[in-house]
């Protein structure tokens, strides 16, 4: 294992300290907790929090700031954060109008965020939530019952963050979340596994010329392995799976997110983006929004994911392009 770290057990703590050092104008860390909070002035609006296991950087702490998350809870690597950490994030995010939680569909995350919600409500803080389940690769996985929450979660942060920034109520944000989550779908592929620092070896190993479709962001198995093909073939598989799930109609508009999983160069992501663009043009799919880069990674996994969002309301596009002040958007 070759990593630029000190002691494996100190990775999360030292990462968060480094994050605050580099972006101290935007975020801070709650003393004694693995929680990153924004420095933006509280103005009596709904607070927005998210989180999960570390190892998916810049998710979620990189999206804390004005216009997106109020706070992010950072669990141990690939491990759900504890209810007490989440409770502190809720309390820090509360501006008096309630707190909304964006939860990825993993059993530990759901259980611990819901426990924290109960504790917060006992302290008089109104809390609501949505569970993001955008990964269409597999219905059930090692951590989930139903579809996993992956890179599409970032688009949820962005749209709901804009809603909170513009003064929407907790009930309005909940209604919006329930509308957008079903319109976001993701599928990915991996060329290599991720190495958790405290484990010291990859979670799975592929042959030199092999890759796997549908691998999860914690290394959960996908739906098939094949000999590596040109980017055009990979794009065709992912695009066809997503469009099959959406069944697009005339005059619909879509957003596209191409997300690197940690060890895939932007050069390769752009090659893949070119192939996706040609496929969508051939199918006369209108793309009104696009974004590319590393947003929901899996430590050092080589691979990428493709997310489509059906822009069923013009205000969603407005929210996606609205300016924000965060370390990573």
From TrEMBL:
Record EC number: 2.7.-.-
Any one GO biological process: glycerol catabolic process
Entry keyword annotation includes Transferase: yes
Keyword Kinase tagged: yes
GO CC annotation terms, alphabetical: cytosol
Domain DhaK: 7-329
Recorded superkingdom: Bacteria
Gene Ontology terms, MF aspect: glycerone kinase activity
Keywords (A to Z) from UniProt: Kinase, Transferase
InterPro entries attached to this UniProt entry: DhaK_1, DhaK_dom, Dihydroxyacetone_Kinase
Alphabetical list of PANTHER family matching this protein: TRIOKINASE/FMN CYCLASE (PTHR28629), TRIOKINASE_FMN CYCLASE (PTHR28629:SF4)
NCBIfam families attached to this UniProt entry: dhaK1
Official protein name in the record: Dihydroxyacetone kinase subunit DhaK
Organism expressing this protein natively: Streptococcus acidominimus
């Amino acid at each position: 294992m070759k990593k630029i770290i000190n002691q494996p057990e100190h990775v999360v703590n030292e990462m968060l300290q480094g994050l605050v050092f580099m972006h101290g104008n935007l975020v801070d860390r709650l003393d004694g907790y693995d929680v990153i909070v924004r420095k933006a002035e509280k103005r009596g609006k709904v607070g927005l929090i998210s989180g999960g296991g570390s190892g998916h950087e810049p998710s979620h702490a990189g999206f804390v700031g004005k216009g997106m998350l109020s706070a992010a809870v950072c669990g141990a690597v690939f491990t759900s954060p504890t209810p007490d950490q989440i409770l502190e994030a809720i309390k820090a995010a509360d501006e008096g109008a309630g707190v909304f939680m964006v939860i990825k569909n993993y059993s530990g995350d759901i259980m611990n965020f819901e426990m924290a919600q109960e504790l917060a409500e006992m302290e008089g803080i109104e809390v609501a939530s949505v569970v993001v389940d955008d990964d269409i690769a597999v219905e059930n996985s090692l951590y989930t019952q139903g579809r996993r929450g992956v890179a599409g979660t970032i688009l949820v942060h962005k749209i709901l963050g804009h809603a909170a920034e513009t003064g929407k109520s907790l009930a309005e944000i909940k209604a919006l979340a329930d509308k957008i989550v079903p319109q976001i779908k993701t599928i990915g592929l991996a060329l290599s596994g991720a190495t958790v620092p405290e484990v010291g070896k990859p979670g799975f190993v592929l042959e030199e010329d092999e890759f796997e479709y549908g691998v999860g962001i914690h290394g959960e198995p996908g739906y098939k392995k094949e000999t590596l093909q040109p980017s055009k073939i990979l794009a065709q598989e992912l695009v066809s799976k997503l469009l099959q799930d959406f069944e697009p109609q005339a005059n619909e508009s879509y957003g596209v997110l191409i997300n690197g999983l940690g060890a895939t160069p932007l050069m390769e992501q752009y090659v893949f983006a070119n192939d996706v663009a040609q496929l969508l043009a051939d199918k006369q799919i209108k793309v009104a929004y696009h974004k590319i880069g590393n947003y929901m990674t899996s430590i050092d996994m080589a691979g990428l994911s493709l997310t489509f969002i059906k822009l069923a309301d013009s205000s969603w596009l407005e929210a996606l392009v609205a300016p924000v002040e965060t370390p990573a958007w």
